Amino acid sequence: MSTHVWGVPQNIGPTAGEWKRVLSEIASLEFDVGLNVVSSLRAFLRGAANEKSVRTLYSALVTSGEAREEVLGRISDLSRLEVDRRYENPHDTALAVLLWLTVMASPDFGTIAADLADRAPQCWYAKKLARIVLAPNPIESGDMGRAAIASEFSLTSRPPSERTVTLNPAFYSRCRFRTRSEAWPTNAGSALLEVAT
Amino acid sequence: MTLYDTQGNYLVGGQLLLATRRGRQIPNDRRPEQPPERMRAAQDIVSAAHPTVRARSLTAAYNCMGMVFASRRTWIDTDELGMILEDDEYRRLSSNEEVVLGDIVVYKDVTGAVSHVGVVARVSIDFVAGTKETTVLSQWGRDGEYFHRVDDVNSRLGSPSEYWTDRR
Prior knowledge:
The complex is a heterodimer of chains A (about 200) and B (about 170).
Chain A: H1 16-26, H2 29-35, H3 41-49, H4 52-63, H5 65-80, H6 92-105, H7 107-119, H8 125-134, H9 146-157, H10 169-173
Chain B: H1 36-49, E1 54-57, H2 64-69, H3 81-87, E2 91-92, E3 104-108, E4 114-126, E5 131-139, E6 145-149, E7 159-165
Antiparallel strand pairs in B: 1-6, 2-7, 3-4, 3-7, 4-5, 5-6
């Protein structure tokens, strides 16, 4: 049986009830506050990867077409909501996480999701992620290193089964895909950085 | 609102002109503010998890780096720390040197990457008990600025690893 990022079996995933529940968790204030204690997109993604709810939803996205469609629909809905322009979009965290998971689980959907998220007003992490997916060059927006983010993102965004799928040639040309057997700092070893080969 | 800088790089809120003492530009980005009620909710959640921390200010306009190196005006990525410390001629304190108010504490995550910075706000020594407690002021991402014990931070902020000073 082949495996995915985080070692999720291809044909076994959480039930619809489970992934719908974690979808609500990802939209919660507690989740938003917890993840936003960090100061960079890289740390944000690393924090998200350590959340059980995020891993559960990722498993669902890998194994269920219904989950992928539901999440894409959720991204579409959230990105169209009116927000108070004086403040950051209250759905930024949820949008960023859902976009990230979609890109990882299904690059084809990921492009669409990034386009939707990029249109959402007053976003921060969601906007930065969307620009990384959509832009010809990884964007340095001032609060993160270009190469670092591109590298981090690539490590978590290309499941082995979809290595031939290309979101954006210019983007992926900068992203060196590493496997466990290649040199990688051993102390970097969170599951986020592990890719089944 | 500025969305692109002169090189065409996308900016959320616009970059401020900010440079090190040697004149190198410090990349930064201004993040939108949070509604006051959301900041208070964040404070409640932080306080529940860390009962001894004390909020100084609740804003999302800057991060920990922006608090320390940009007068609370903008967000600066922790990746820029090395350049700033070098250009501003900070020096790392050795383990037997005294830490004083105004010194900087650098936190690192499990990978060894810089994850957080703060300013030493108080050092209290209990001579009877033979203990020393360091209080730090730092901005916790988007969730507000807090006084806290040096080791009492959200786990995502890493653990205190180094002290640096600009004292001459």
